[in-house]
Amino acid sequence: MNDSSIDAARALGDPLRRRLYEYVADSGGEVGRGAAAEALGIQRTLAAHHLDKLVEAGLLDVVRRKVSGREGPGSGRPAKLYRRSEHEVSLQLPPRDYELAARVLAEAVERHGAEESLHAAAHEEGRRIGAGAGAWSVLELLRSRGYEPDPNENTNSDADATGVRLRNCPFHRLAREFPPLACGLNLALIEGMLAAHAEGRGAKAPEARLAPESGRCCVLISKNNIG
């Protein structure tokens, strides 16, 4: 835990700032002050004040670009836009370091070629999670695990990569250091979740497959049977 984490937690303690942060995060991209104000039903100046506070706390980043689609003289000044920061915030009392443990375990798995056992364990854990989802839909189940599914988004250049994209990877840092291992674990976990969730409803599980894309989770889920 450090001062930046405390500042971020303090910023989100304000209900309006938390709503603004969630709005920007849920957008999956860049948001202007006007759009944020309209979405929350508040004045633009008030939205701007709180958005800038979220920037100061390291929760949002600022991007300046022209949104008119025009260039050159008379095209207007670049707009100030906001997007979710890639900076991760962790606040734990007493201090814990589960990330270090994950890195050590990942290194051991790769060193000893135990990927198959890891994927099997991940699939079993996914089934446990999916079986306990109750009346949740598939999208609600994925949201509950931090994946942030967006069935309307498809930015992959692969024309065949259509389906439900997951805007967030809950294992982002591990995936950067151990891509094949973490992505394989992720796929097995999600497949287990979807299988058990579908079985509980007598339905067919949607297909999940690897379709890596920068800034997104590596797993893509078919829209078939997603309801």
Strands, helices and their partners?
Elements: H1 3-12, H2 15-27, E1 31-32, H3 33-40, H4 44-56, E2 60-65, E3 79-84, H5 98-111, H6 115-131, H7 138-144, E4 149-150, E5 164-166, H8 172-177, H9 179-199, E6 208-210, E7 219-221
Antiparallel strand pairs: 1-3, 2-3, 4-5, 5-7, 6-7
Helix pairs in contact: 2-4, 3-4, 6-9
Give structural attributes.
single chain; 227 residues; alpha+beta; 4-stranded antiparallel β-sheet; 3-stranded antiparallel β-sheet; 7 strands; 11% strand
Describe the structure.
By secondary structure, the protein is of the alpha+beta class. It has helices at 3-12, 15-27, 33-40, 44-56, 98-111, 115-131, 138-144, 172-177, 179-199, and strands at 31-32, 60-65, 79-84, 149-150, 164-166, 208-210, 219-221. Helix 3 crosses helix 4. The protein is globular, with a radius of gyration of 20 Å. The two termini are 40 Å apart.
Widest beta sheet: strand line-up: 4-5-7-6
**Helical stretch tally:** 9
**Helix content estimate:** 40-55%
Structural class, from helix and strand content?
Answer: alpha+beta
Please give the alpha-carbon distance between the first and last residues.
40 Å
User: What is the H-and-E element order?
Assistant: HHEHHEEHHHEEHHEE
Largest sheet: 4 strands, antiparallel
Report the sheet-strand fraction.
5-15%
Which runs of at least 5 residues are low in confidence (pLDDT < 50)? 154-160
The average pLDDT is: 89
Radius of gyration: 20 Å
The counted number of beta strands is 7
C-alpha geometry:
globular
